[in-house]
Specification:
4-stranded mixed β-sheet, 5-stranded antiparallel β-sheet, Jelly Rolls, alpha+beta, 785 residues, elongated, 19 strands, 51% helix, 27 helices
Amino acid sequence: MRSTGSGWRDAAVSGLVLAACVVTPLAWWSLRLGPMRSGGIPTLFTYDEYQYSLPALEYAAQAFRARSVPLWNPTQLCGTPYLAAQLHGALYPLHWLVAIWDVPQVLRWMLFIHSMLAIGGTYWCARGFGVGRAAALLGGVTYAFSGTVTDLNFASMEPGPVIAAWLPWQLGLTRKLLRTDARWGWYAVGLGATTALCVVGGHIPMLADFFYLCGGYAIAQLVVTAHRGGAKAAGSQMVRLGVAGVVLVTLSAVQVFPTLELGLRSPRQPGALTKGGGTDPPAWLPPDQLLRDILYPWPRAFGLGGEGHVGTAALALAAVPLLWRRTRRRGIFFCAAALAATLIALGDHTPVYRWYLHLPGSSLIRIPQRFMLITALCLSLLGALGADTLRRHRRVSEVAISTAAGVGLLAILWWGLRTVNVRWQQGDPSAVAALRQHGMWFVAWGALFAFPHRWFGAQWRRALVVVVVAASVVELYGSIGAQFSIPANQPDALQVPWNAAAFIRQRQGLTRTFAPNGLSSQDALMREIPPKLGMLTGLNVIGDYEVLLDSRYNTLVNQIEGVAESKWGGFVASRIGRIGAQQAPLLRVLGVGFVLIHRDAAIDVSGLPPAVYRDADYDVYEIAEPLSRAYVATHVSVAPTAEQALAALINGTALILEHGVVVEETALANRDSAGRVTVTAYAPQRVELQAQLERPGLVVLQDQFDPYWTATVDGHATEIVRANYAFRAVAVDAGAHTVRFVYRPWLLYAGAATTLATVIVLLALGLRSLTRWRRERSIPLHADA
């Protein structure tokens, strides 16, 4: 039985570790970010954060404050699913703070919180792999402040840090689940729950880091178990993994169900990324840059997510676990995982990336450098394991071998960098000097472990590890040559054309706005009109910066000449070099009444009439007679296939602008009619029309088609058909009628019910387990002394 003193000592140590997990990120990011301030524009590194996460979360915040859930977004892409798009992270519990705080303030706090989670998760994961407390803390700080994770915090949108923060927790829970018989059910719940948090709040393609790392560990563990305990023991572990998978799916069903459905009909569907065919990812990370960013501890310009530096000490210590029998098996796994992830991150520079494309889910990963997150975590855990091994050495020879191995690894990486690139044969003087200095400090630090145990005991050795923890934090802080300030509030966060938008709102009615940014340089990129302008200003914009959207709409807006659009989605109707008479008919069909352009966008507007509004930075042009938002079809053309419908729309814009319509249902032929339509109510998830038809016909609503919109005519349900390739129409009889469109995503509702039921069941089981645990720990009172 453990003594009371031992319990208090463990509690004190745990308190110190918790304090380190909290205080270190607060100090790091407070110094790195600087004060909250007014003004500011997005940089190349913060583009996704400002141009996607911030507007998307601001839209959610407005809905939350109005006590509603944002299901549909009518301000972008002629209407598009909001909650199903996922990347906004509106369902992530920590993001619910936007209901009470400004979004930039919440995003700033997410840096602190996710850094704390990363340190704590890596610490707990390392402890699960048998690492001592002080060394486990080394793994925590070197991972949380590694170049890769810091890059995700600076240069990625909010979902990236979410994945980075929970990855070590997932690896630790996977190990506990497979190797612990007691309470394995709760480890399964923990693994499913943490992964569900990544699904609702993280970058879903980056979940590949979890599946490949934890899946690789699970496969290795199953093989070992089958070899030692037989198929039955391995089958038991597979059941545990299956329970975790059920928890994951049911907890995240509210996000998974609608997102999966939208993904299957979006440009970024499975199989979209292949070698060749114009979908190749750029080879952003050449081998010399990868080695340089892993090896050299020097202040450098901030770059891509391949900066894998985890500190000189942790990098050198990564070689130690491979030398000793007690840690070799764990070291081999971490080393193999880091090497495989790095080879994938190199893209076309090695054949491994081509092999990777055959793995499940590979088509979702556009930037292979994101796998450097696995490299950073494995190097940090190797460093922690190495530090703990060095602490446990009792012989001078063991200390000397481990220290020499660490120096040897640094020397091999330096030699490899000189070999792969002629430019680095002489080496950058400041980088080489920094590496030499840090290497000498490492040797001096390692030599202190050679003192006999009778001189310096276990506490001394733990103190030495704590010293290297502090030194690694200082080194990593100095290795990032960038510093940013976060704007103080939403209006100041982006360069938004507020005055021009106000001018358009006064005149637009239900017409839409086209706000392209031109095929511009990176400098102009920082001054461009936000692609999510509609979410910020309330304008109805036909473009967006979105990955998951309906493929038909994406194909349609690609017809606007000059839009640089790929199969991946992304910038939709946002990159164009010229707007003139050739684009005007299609813009009118899309309901565009105004074109908003930044004067520095380098877009040829010679074909447009004079601007109707001008200020210091922006011009607004008006396009005459755009197609009405809703109308009665005067002529119905039938095109049996999607391809024929698109061709008929593009070649027949004159007919469409005269209130004609192209449908794909042959039964709707000969439905020509006349009449008028009035929009009496227009809300994000509900549209009401008053229609007057001279004879039976079609009422067309130029909002994007989605299978989860329902329609009624005078209260009677009716079918919505695709009209004009990507929009909606309903059949209506002659006379006066009320037509209502209501967005009812039943798949999302089913997912929400599944998630809610799972939460209730888990809470009930948790309460029951807690009650049983307290009953078992209670000490019965006896009358006898």
